[in-house]
Amino acid sequence: xxxxxxxxxxxxxxxxxxxxxxxxxxxxxxxxxxxxxxxxxxxxxxxxxxxxxxxxxxxxxxxxxxxxxxxxxxxxxxxxxxxxxxxxxxxxxxxxxxxxxxxxxxxxxxxxxxxxxxxxxxxxxxxxxxxxxxxxxxxxxxxxxxxxxxxxxxxxxxxxxxxxxxxxxxxxxxxx
Length: 176
Prior knowledge:
By secondary structure, the chain is of the alpha/beta class. It has 5 helices and 6 strands; from the N terminus they run αβαβαβαβαββ. β2 (77-80), α3 (84-97) and β3 (101-103) form a beta-alpha-beta unit.
């Protein structure tokens, strides 16, 4: 799928799930993404920045693009792990919406899934290549193939409806 086609489809789906939810709405919509590009992507092993590198310039651009996509999603919550790259990916959306970033433990994705399913609303969750597909599956969605080392353009949309119906879709955003 081309970049423009993927962005159009993602925008269409986001629009379908956007706007304020009625007070009695107990549905949950989760937009799950991996953090954006790391500052040390492609660096030789001896030049890696450790376990907690910041975003690269391309990563900051992707975080801004995510914020633009999320602007009309009717978000009620923003979640991130406690790493520079995830917090920096979530920050533009948090600032644009006025929703504070709620930190979660990357080592306990099952607990996050339970919390999300018990909290109606629209959630942006920024995670990692190994936690994002696991979260999607724990929420009842289809995680697809594992996320590649330098793959940052996935956005999963997982929804659950009050009667137990769940579904998911996978889109791409920003540059591949």
